[in-house]
């Protein structure tokens, strides 16, 4: 699938469960779904183009929201372990909608990250939250790690 993200030299393998792609954050091969394809390309983009340390990132992070277990697609933490960014991925054929933003905002009720990103691999949205003033704003580009 062609994405609006830079190409990288991903590692694929086929086994009895199907085709898998190597997830450098989880250090294992995972099933290639359209959403996983977006996740792996986006993570690589953050690391190589935007300078995000892989050691401060995680995929499929479990949280409890209103007594229910949920999973954030990806997070970025600062050096003290505080979540500073949540990233939600959708398949390229899924249009990013209000329900996508509602989903990431629900996760953020638990994590209180400053940055929220939603991507379907073709369109990317980044929002910065100002907790002091109770406001948020969309920014035109994904910030480099050294600016957040």
Uncertain stretches: none
* Largest sheet, strands/sense/barrel: 6 strands, mixed
Number of H/I helices = 2
In the sheet with the most strands, the strands line up as 4-5-6-7-8-9
Question: What value does the average pLDDT take?
Answer: 95
The helix/strand class is alpha+beta
| N to C succession of SSEs | EEEHEEEHEEE
N-end to C-end Cα span: 30 Å
Helix fraction, binned, reads 10-25%
The percentage of residues in β strands lies in: 35-45%
Shape: globular
Could you give the count of β-strands?
9
State Rg. 15 Å
Structural summary, described in words:
This protein is an alpha+beta fold and 148 residues long. It is built from 2 helices and 9 strands; from the N terminus they run βββαβββαβββ. Strands 4-5-6-7-8-9 form a 6-stranded mixed beta sheet, sandwiched between helices. It has a 3-stranded antiparallel beta sheet with strand order 1-2-3, covered by helices on one side. The protein is globular. The mean pLDDT is 95.
SSE blueprint and pairings:
Blueprint: E1 12-15, E2 18-23, E3 28-31, H1 34-48, E4 57-65, E5 68-77, E6 83-89, H2 98-111, E7 115-119, E8 124-130, E9 135-139
């Amino acid at each position: 699938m062609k994405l609006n993200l830079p190409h990288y030299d991903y590692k694929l393998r086929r086994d009895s469960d199907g085709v898998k792609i190597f997830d450098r954050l989880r250090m294992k091969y995972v099933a290639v779904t359209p959403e996983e394809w977006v996740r792996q390309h986006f993570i690589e983009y953050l690391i190589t183009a935007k300078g995000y340390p892989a050691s401060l990132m995680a995929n499929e992070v479990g949280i409890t929201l209103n007594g229910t277990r949920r999973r954030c697609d990806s997070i970025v933490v600062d050096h003290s372990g505080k979540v500073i960014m949540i990233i939600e991925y959708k398949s390229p054929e899924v249009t990013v909608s209000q329900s996508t933003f509602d989903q990431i905002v629900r996760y953020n009720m638990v994590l209180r990250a400053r940055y929220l990103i939603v991507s379907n691999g073709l369109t990317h949205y980044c929002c910065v939250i100002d907790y002091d003033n109770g406001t948020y704003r969309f920014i035109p580009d994904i910030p480099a790690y050294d600016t957040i």
